[in-house]
Amino acid sequence: MPSTLTHFECSKTGERYPKDELLNLSKTGAPLLARYDLKKAAETLKPENLANRRNDMWRYHEVLPFTDDSSLVTLNEGFTPLRPVDRLRKETGFSRLFMKDESVNPTGSFKARGLAAAVNGAIQRGVKSFAIPTAGNAGGALSAYAALAGKPCHIFMPADSPKAFITECRSNGAHVELVDGLITDCGKIVASRKDAEGWHDISTLKEPFRLEGKKTMGYELFEQLGRNLPDTIIYPTGGGTGLIGMWKAFAEMKELGWIQESAKLPKMISVQAAGCAPIVRAFENGDDSADFWEDAHTAASGLRVPAAVADFLILRAIRESGGTAVAVDDETMIRETHRLNKFTGVFSAPEGGACLAVLDRLEKEKIISKNDAIVLFNTGSGYKYLEALTL
Ligand SMILES: *Cc1c(COP(=O)(O)O)cnc(C)c1O
């Protein structure tokens, strides 16, 4: 399973870092981006060659950072369905609407992609134990891959996280500490203890591999739409890994020759909760980075991220794509989640409902139109959010 990884690169300064080291942020404190020899990758990574490959995200191995097939830690994450959602199309009037259904991933959310990538990347570079601050799904995913690999992991989660997340992590054998605070408070604890404890910190975008796992969603969309990209992607944004990851994938696909240099890329629409919308506020103010969001609250745990390390990369991708950022209040989000589920049969997470909630508004603002190819992301399973979804 050859990879064409050449090095990592600082997203602020472009400084290079060696590919074989276990890394976190760059010296300037910015996320590191994996870089590949895409000319070489293009020799074998061709859309027409993919049909017979494995049905998970590892089918794109040339542009993933792992080489050792025999020891790959995987629950077969990724390559999730792109659902045509016919009844929802009729209900909403959007004739080419799709749902990228990430709820069928192992551990019930797309966090499986990023954490599978991060655990493999770290194991190949000699990791001993993991630590993560999480709003819920990332911890669940880490607990699964750490269990599969037989490595200890330490999970720091807000005490008021939905019960399913806490139970899942503990059942998978993780050390769980409940924190009276938010994911950012959990992050501070990990940062202050990791050196003494020998933990590898796999916070969102504080290590380079989670992004690589999540970028595979961009490759999948292209394959699943018959070698086309959609006009618009509606994405519920917390730390922004998936949004930045897909944007990175599209840039790689140009270099791979999958799409033309001049090709129009999808508009990236970032959806946040009204109770925690730092990216929306920064986007509206025309800022390049986002201020901390005080008193963050929302039932959509994945969106309860008051500060994102890669805020500048999220904002850049939204703007380069001609997209926008919009907020949805919780009451609307939950109502729209039930509507989503009623017309698709997919028991979706509130984050998925948030995406459905913005369709009409985006059409009124002329950012999308009824006949555009639109992909809305259902990023997780409703089973993890029973408290919020109980009727
Ligand atoms: C983490 C999470 C998100 C946000 O994902 P990012 O790529 O970090 O922005 C959205 N939905 C769910 C269900 C999540 O767990």
Q: What is the topological layout?
A:
Blueprint: E1 5-10, E2 16-17, E3 32-36, H1 38-44, E4 82-83, H2 86-92, E5 96-101, H3 111-123, E6 129-133, H4 137-149, E7 153-158, H5 163-171, E8 175-179, H6 183-197, E9 199-201, H7 209-224, E10 232-236, H8 241-255, E11 267-273, H9 278-285, H10 311-321, E12 324-328, H11 330-344, H12 350-357, H13 359-364, E13 373-378, H14 386-389
Parallel strand pairs: 5-13, 6-7, 6-9, 7-8, 10-11, 10-13, 11-12
Antiparallel strand pairs: 1-2, 1-3, 4-5
Describe this structure in words.
There is one protein chain. The protein is an alpha/beta fold and 391 residues long. It has a domain at 82-109 and 209-389: Rossmann fold. The chain has helices at residues 38-44, 86-92, 111-123, 137-149, 163-171, 183-197, 209-224, 241-255, 278-285, 311-321, 330-344, 350-357, 359-364, 386-389, and strands spanning 5-10, 16-17, 32-36, 82-83, 96-101, 129-133, 153-158, 175-179, 199-201, 232-236, 267-273, 324-328, 373-378. It has a six-stranded mixed sheet with strand order 4-5-13-10-11-12, sandwiched between helices. Strands 8-7-6-9 form a four-stranded parallel sheet, sandwiched between helices. A three-stranded antiparallel sheet has the order 2-1-3. Helix 3 (111-123) packs parallel to helix 4 and helix 4 (137-149) runs parallel beside helix 5. The longest helix is centred in the middle third of the chain and has 16 residues, at 209-224. The chain is globular. The mean pLDDT is 96. Residues 109, 111, 137, 204, 236-242, 302, 349, 351, 379-380 line the site of pyridoxal-5'-phosphate. The site of pyridoxal-5'-phosphate has 16 residues, from helix 8.
